[in-house]
């Protein structure tokens, strides 16, 4: 599966890191490292990360949670 | 009802069961001045812009004042000093940068991913035990039976507070949570009582921290109490520990109870969650939008702030009405409909900006495990009373208890 994080929108809330620690990592306070191609088996955790993001910065192939008015 | 008295209506306990129509009227004026000079912010866009505005201060509490004792040494020397110390070392939800950021950094360094996610098994076992204890009964009182004991046991575990001490600070925690309500702050007597309660719980924490320093465990409090934390003195450490303990008591309770209440009012959604526990994350995010545990927080304007056509003057109290922003029709189509399938759930259920709820990941774990288990294991659950009785708080809003008739435990 494919994952894209809109790093302009990301505010470093780190909620994805708790939801899917193997695929998202915050270094320092604001640098997000993430796995752009996690295995299909991780889908549950990735979707949790996507749902938990307070600014909806995470896009997962096939699931679109984007919103119209980006900050 | 004139517009400048609407927030008084929100605070009126008579409107606790359904404050949403009042929120809808407040939203007609996104930033509405009230008679007492406070500005209530109720639209999604205005709340969001203010959450990221550095001209908003969280140091909005009135100064603490210890009650007169009649002992001149205390009244004229000791208590004024203690008041000044308490005012200078408030917990981080009542602090601004840079001190806030330092204190929050220490908490985050202990609120590690491994520690929080490691609680999964413990939460599941607790939920299992609490539900099992209801076997043989035909009613469940959700707050007493699960929503309250679960988060309390978890926060005690996480902090390293002995669980047998819990009854001792149960009343303290309730009292300090009440102190967050705006009407409690205006009442002089209530404020004094809050100070006395804080002194009692602080004494308890001071003794516990001393024990942790002698015999550190692998809990959060032992970690926070390490002496290599510049910027967090003894008083800050105690305030932080009390904050975490109280926050762990009073908020997740509402998330679980409001969650079950909402699912019981939407039996189709309850059935879908029972059949497919993988729906839990989206159900919980929608719950955080639709029935959030915390309805508003207050701030103070550090300068004149123009927002949504109104200028909030310097020094004015500001109410960020998160629960109203969560139901803003400009932001969410059909906002009053509970719909876990909506794709856009950018809610203020955990606040936002630099004070975003530290405990959010833990709350999500507890709510998910509890709600899935309740849906799967309670046979034929039905509400005994709708609406249920509510606790008095308008900000930390939730049912006093939630009676559920059941046909057994599965």
Automatic annotation (TrEMBL), chain A:
<keyword id="KW-0408">Iron</keyword>
<dbReference type="GO" id="GO:0046872">
    <property type="term" value="F:metal ion binding"/>
</dbReference>
<keyword id="KW-0411">Iron-sulfur</keyword>
<keyword id="KW-0249">Electron transport</keyword>
<keyword id="KW-0813">Transport</keyword>
<dbReference type="InterPro" id="IPR051269">
    <property type="entry name" value="Fe-S_cluster_ET"/>
</dbReference>
<dbReference type="GO" id="GO:0051536">
    <property type="term" value="F:iron-sulfur cluster binding"/>
</dbReference>
<keyword id="KW-0479">Metal-binding</keyword>
<dbReference type="Pfam" id="PF13370">
    <property type="entry name" value="Fer4_13"/>
</dbReference>
<protein>
    <submittedName>
        <fullName>Ferredoxin-2</fullName>
    </submittedName>
</protein>
TrEMBL record, chain B:
<dbReference type="GO" id="GO:0016705">
    <property type="term" value="F:oxidoreductase activity, acting on paired donors, with incorporation or reduction of molecular oxygen"/>
</dbReference>
<keyword id="KW-0349">Heme</keyword>
<dbReference type="GO" id="GO:0004497">
    <property type="term" value="F:monooxygenase activity"/>
</dbReference>
<dbReference type="GO" id="GO:0020037">
    <property type="term" value="F:heme binding"/>
</dbReference>
<dbReference type="InterPro" id="IPR002397">
    <property type="entry name" value="Cyt_P450_B"/>
</dbReference>
<dbReference type="InterPro" id="IPR036396">
    <property type="entry name" value="Cyt_P450_sf"/>
</dbReference>
<comment type="function">
    <text>Cytochromes P450 are a group of heme-thiolate monooxygenases. They oxidize a variety of structurally unrelated compounds, including steroids, fatty acids, and xenobiotics.</text>
</comment>
<dbReference type="InterPro" id="IPR017972">
    <property type="entry name" value="Cyt_P450_CS"/>
</dbReference>
<keyword id="KW-0503">Monooxygenase</keyword>
<protein>
    <submittedName>
        <fullName>Cytochrome P450 107B1</fullName>
    </submittedName>
</protein>
<keyword id="KW-0479">Metal-binding</keyword>
<keyword id="KW-0560">Oxidoreductase</keyword>
<keyword id="KW-0408">Iron</keyword>
<dbReference type="GO" id="GO:0005506">
    <property type="term" value="F:iron ion binding"/>
</dbReference>
<dbReference type="Pfam" id="PF00067">
    <property type="entry name" value="p450"/>
</dbReference>
<comment type="similarity">
    <text>Belongs to the cytochrome P450 family.</text>
</comment>
<dbReference type="InterPro" id="IPR001128">
    <property type="entry name" value="Cyt_P450"/>
</dbReference>
């Amino acid at each position: 599966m494919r994952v894209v994080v809109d790093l302009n929108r990301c505010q470093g809330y780190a909620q994805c890191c708790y939801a899917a620690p193997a695929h998202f990592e915050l270094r320092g306070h604001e640098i997000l490292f993430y796995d752009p191609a996690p295995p299909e088996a991780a889908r549950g955790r990735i979707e949790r990360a996507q749902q938990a993001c307070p600014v909806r910065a995470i896009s997962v192939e096939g699931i679109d949670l984007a919103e119209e008015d980006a900050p | 009802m004139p517009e400048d008295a609407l927030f008084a209506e929100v605070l009126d306990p008579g409107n606790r069961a359904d404050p949403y129509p009042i929120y809808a009227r407040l939203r007609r004026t996104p930033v509405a001045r009230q008679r007492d000079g406070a500005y209530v912010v109720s639209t999604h866009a205005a709340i969001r812009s203010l959450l990221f505005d550095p001209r908003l201060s969280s140091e909005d509490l009135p100064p603490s004042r210890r009650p007169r004792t009649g002992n001149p040494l205390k009244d004229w020397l000791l208590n004024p000093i203690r008041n000044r110390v308490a005012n200078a070392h408030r917990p981080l939800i009542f602090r601004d940068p840079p001190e806030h950021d330092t204190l929050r950094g220490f908490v985050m360094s202990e609120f590690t991913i491994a520690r929080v996610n490691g609680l999964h098994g413990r939460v599941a076992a607790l939920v299992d035990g609490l539900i099992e204890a209801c076997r043989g009964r035909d009613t469940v009182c959700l707050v007493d039976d699960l929503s309250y004991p679960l988060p309390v046991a978890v926060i005690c575990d996480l902090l390293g507070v002995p669980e047998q001490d819990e009854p001792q600070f149960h009343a303290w925690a309730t009292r300090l949570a009440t102190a967050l309500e705006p009407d409690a702050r205006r009442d002089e007597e209530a404020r004094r009582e809050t100070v006395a309660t804080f002194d009692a719980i602080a004494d308890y924490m001071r003794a516990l921290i001393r024990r942790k320093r002698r015999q550190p465990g692998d809990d959060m409090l032992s970690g926070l109490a390490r002496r290599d934390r510049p910027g967090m003195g003894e008083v800050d450490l105690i305030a932080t520990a009390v904050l975490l303990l109280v926050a762990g008591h009073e908020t997740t309770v509402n998330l679980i109870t409001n969650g079950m209440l909402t699912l019981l009012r939407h039996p189709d959604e309850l059935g879908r969650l029972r059949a497919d526990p993988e729906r839990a994350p989206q159900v919980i995010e929608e719950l955080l939008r639709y029935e959030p545990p915390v309805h508003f927080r207050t701030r103070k304007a550090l300068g004149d702030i123009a927002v949504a056509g109104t200028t909030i003057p310097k020094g004015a109290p500001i109410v960020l009405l998160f629960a109203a922003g969560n139901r803003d029709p400009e932001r969410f189509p059909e906002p009053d409909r509970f719909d876990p399938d909506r794709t856009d759930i950018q809610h203020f259920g955990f606040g936002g900006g630099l004070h975003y709820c530290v405990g959010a990941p833990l709350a999500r774990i507890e709510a998910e495990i509890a709600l899935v288990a309740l849906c799967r294991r309670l046979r034929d659950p039905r509400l005994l009373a709708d609406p249920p009785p509510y606790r008095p708080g308008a900000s930390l809003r939730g049912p006093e208890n939630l009676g559920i008739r059941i046909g057994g435990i599965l």
